[in-house]
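tl;dr need the bound structure. longer version: we got a ligand (flavin-adenine dinucleotide) that a collaborator sent over and nobodys looked at where it sits. i said id run it. heres the input, straight from their email, havent touched it
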Amino acid sequence: MLRLTDIQLPLDHAEPAIRLAVLNKLRLTDEQLLSVTVFRRSYDARKKSAIHLIYTLDVTTTQDDELLQQFHSDKNVTRTPDTNYQFVTHATSEHFLRPVVIGTGPCGLFAGLLLAQMGFRPIILERGKAVRERTQDTWGLWRKRELQPESNVQFGEGGAGTFSDGKLYSQIKDPHHYGRKVLLEFIKAGAPAEILYVSKPHIGTFRLVKMVEDMRATIISLGGEVRFSQKVVDIVRNKDAIEAVVLENGEHIATNHVVLAIGHSARDTFEMLHERGVYIEAKPFSVGFRVEHPQSLIDRCRFGPNAGNPILGAADYKLVHHASNGRSVYSFCMCPGGTVVAATSEPGRIVTNGMSQYSRNERNANSAIVVGITPEDYPGHPLAGIPFQRALESHAYLLGGSNYNAPGQLVGDFIAGRASTKLGSVEPSYKPGVQLGDLSSALPEYAITAIREALPAFDKQIRGFAMADAVLTGVETRTSSPIRIKRRDDDLQSLNTRGLFPAGEGAGYAGGILSAAVDGIRVAEAVALSLNGLK
Ligand SMILES: Cc1cc2nc3c(=O)[nH]c(=O)nc-3n(C[C@H](O)[C@H](O)[C@H](O)COP(=O)(O)OP(=O)(O)OC[C@H]3O[C@@H](n4cnc5c(N)ncnc54)[C@H](O)[C@@H]3O)c2cc1C
C-alpha cells in the first residue's frame, strides 16, 4: 500500500475528485488503482476566500513497487507504514499477583484495557461513581449548587475528560502509533469513525459517557474487575517496593504492580504519597480565566465567506503572546460552540473549564487564557503548587458570592481596570451563574498584567477578540498537574518505589485525553513485561 501526502482539493470538491487526484498524481489508469482510503483530512484556511482541504491518502495499485521506484525522489509518495498494534507480551500463567490500576480516566482505562487484553486481569479502583450516577452528581453542582466531593467533573468513571469537548489530538511523539490504537478502541466503543482521519477529531460529552461504559464492559469480559467508590488512601511499601494498596474501607489489596493514574486533582492522594516517601517534585503549570465570545465571530474571522461550511465545522483558534513582563500567555483547551463548566472537586472553591457536545452548536466559543507559572512562583516544597491553586480557587469562590457562582468581568472593563456591573451582548454560559465584578485580585498581579496586555494583542490575530462585551470567568487553575511523580525512563517505575508506575496527567506525563490514554498503554506494557519477568 502507498501513502500519498499533501493532496490538495477545493473545499467544495465532489467525492470522485479524490480518486481523480490520485490517478493524475500517479499517472495511472482507472483499472490500475484498486482502492483509495482517507488516512487524514485537514484544511488550510490561510486564504479565507479559497480554503482548501489537504488529504493524506492510502492507496493500493497493481504496481506499488514500480511506483515507489518511479516516485523515489517525491517525499509525498511513500510506502504506508504498518500502524497495527502488537502486544508486547501475554500472561503466560494463571499464577501472579494481579496488577492494580488506580483511576478510570483515559490513562487508567487504557492501562486497564491493555492489561486485560494481555490476560493480566487487572483490578481497577475508582474513588468516584459509575459514569451515569456521576453525571447526575456533576449536574447537581451546575443546576442546584450541590457539590459531591467524590463524584464530580474531576472524579468518577471516565476521569476528568468525560464532561468535555472530547478533543482527541495531541502533539506528543508517537513512533509506535499508540494514538491509533486509542482511536480504534474508541471507535469500537462507539466513537464516530471520522476520528480516525479528521485532523482535529473530537467526540463531545454525550458519546463519551456511553463509550466509557462500553470500555468498562470489555475490561470485565476479559477478566478485569472495576470497582467504584473505592478510594485508595494508603500504600504499603517494603524496602522501597510496593506490597499493597489500602482502601478507605480498610481493605488491603496485595499487589506488586500499581498503575497510579489519579489525575491532577487527587490532592489528598498526592499528599499521602509524599508522606509515604514516594519521590515527587514541583512542576510548572498555568493559571488564568475562561473567555467567551460569540462563535460566529470566531467563524467569520477564521473562515471568512466559508463560515458555516459543515466540513469546516465551528472554528477554533490557538493564540500565544509573550508579555513584556516575561510571562507567556496562551489560549488553552479551546471549545468551539461549547459551554464553560464548573469544575471544582473541593467545597468552597471555584474552578472553570470548558466542554462541548459533538455538534458544537452552542452560541459561544470559549477557551482558557492562561499564564505559565513555574515552581519559582510557589517555592519551598514539592507540593507547594497545591496551596497556591487552592488559594486562588477559594478567593474566586468569595468573589463569586460564596454560592458557586463564578466571578466574571467583561473584557472591555478588565482591560480598562474597572468593575463590570452589567452584561452586554455576550451571555456567559457558566452554570450555576456568574457574579460580575472585578477580577483584578483573582490572580497574581503578574498574571493580570500579562493577560491585560495579551487580549489586545490577540485581537490583532482574531479581530474582535478584545471586544468589550466578551466575558471572562475565573479561575482556571487545573490546567495540568502541579507536581511530577518521577519515574525511570527504562521501566517506567517510580524513581524510589519499585512496582509503582506513575502515569497520565496527575503524575505529570500527559496533558489531555489522547496523551493520557497513550501513556496508559505505555505503562500497561511496562507492567506486563515486569509481571512476565522480562524487565
Ligand atoms: C471539563 C474538562 C474538559 C476537558 N476537555 C478536554 C478535551 O477536550 N480534550 C483533552 O484532550 N483533554 C481535555 N481535558 C483534560 C483531560 O480530561 C485530562 O487531561 C485527562 O482526563 C487526564 O487523564 P488521566 O487518566 O491522567 O486523569 P483523570 O482523567 O483525571 O482520571 C483520574 C481518575 O483517578 C481517580 N482517582 C483519583 N485519586 C484516586 C484514588 N486515591 N483512588 C481511586 N481513584 C482515584 C479520579 O476519580 C479520576 O477518575 C478536559 C478536562 C476537564 C476537567
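gonna send this back to them w/ a short note. Residues 2-79 form a domain with the Alpha-Beta Plaits fold (CATH 3.30.70.2700).
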